[in-house]
Amino acid sequence: MRHRKKFNHLSRTSAHRKAMLSNMASSLILHKRIKTTVAKAKALRMYVEPLINKSKTDNTHSRRIVFSHLQNKEAVSELFREVSEKVANRPGGYTRILKLGNRQGDAAEVCFIELVDFNENMLSDKADGEKKRTRRSRRGGGAKKTTTPATEPTAKAVEAAEETKEDKASDSEEKKEE
Amino acid sequence: MAHPKRKTSKTRRDKRRTHYKATMPALGVCSNCGATIKMHTVCNECGHYRGKLAVEKEVTA
Locations of Basic and acidic residues compositional bias (chain A) (predicted)? Predict the structure, then answer.
């Protein structure tokens, strides 16, 4: 039974896995984009995103917590200096995984994992998408509704178009998985 | 413990295997250069993904 086994063990012992994720997280923060397999990238995403979240509050305590995970001075200072600045307005989702196909040798699925805010090419025409914040929870939704209607019609149209696109994409993905 | 009474014949084995089939990967067309691409992957030819430049050519190769 795989009930409640949420994360991928990546065929490693706990210590090995933690060391690898720690190294990968440091590399990602220092280089902004690293090439790895999709499975590792997905595991790394779960590992770094909370750390990047922590970097938004710059104090000794959060720095120590992050250091305990990264074990790399340069990476920690880079994270709190450069990365946290760029990431400040983003409510989560700091990384992007770009699949690159299968590699020669073992046919493993390879991908780039990158920090979203450091890829100018992909960012350029998404600038308007950043502004509108969607809140899915109903709590505190009433107050927001009064402020949004002015911009809503255009935003909704764009959203609807994007949604249909994404739906199609996800449909085909499901087919592939089947 | 139960055991097989007979060896599985070649015919029976091969008949079972008629259902083992390779599936075609979902393919699409790159919106930038028109090359055939695997869905949800960066284009191998021009490095675009969903109409945007994702990866410079040198890096992809």
Answer: 162-178
Q: Does A104 touch chain B (CB under 8 A)?
A: no
What is the token pair recorded at A147? 């402020």
Structure ipTM: 0.76
Task: Look over chain A and give the mean of its residue pLDDT values, rounded to a whole number.
Answer: 81
Q: Is residue B12 part of a domain?
A: no
- B51 in a structural domain: yes
Single-letter amino acid, residue A59: N
Residue of B nearest to A126 (CA): B52
Structural domain includes residue B13: no
The terminus-to-terminus CA distance of chain B in angstroms comes to 56
pLDDT in tens, chain B (61 residues): 899 999 999 999 999 999 999 999 999 999 888 999 999 999 988 888 888 887 776 544 4
- In chain A, the domains with their CATH numbers are 14-122 (3.90.1030.10)
Q: Which domain holds residue B40?
A: 25-60
> Has residue B2 been placed in a domain?
no
Flag whether residue A112 sits within 8 Å of chain B, measured between CB atoms: yes
| Nearest CB to B55; choose among A98, A124, A176 | A98
Residue in chain A nearest B43 by alpha carbon: A100
Of A102, A99, A114, A106, the C-alpha closest to A11 is A106
- Number of independent structural domains in chain B: 1
Structure tokens at A11: 């065929």
pLDDT digits 0-9 by tens, A90-135: 999 999 999 999 999 999 999 999 999 998 887 765 554 445 556 6
Q: What is the pLDDT of residue A1?
A: 87
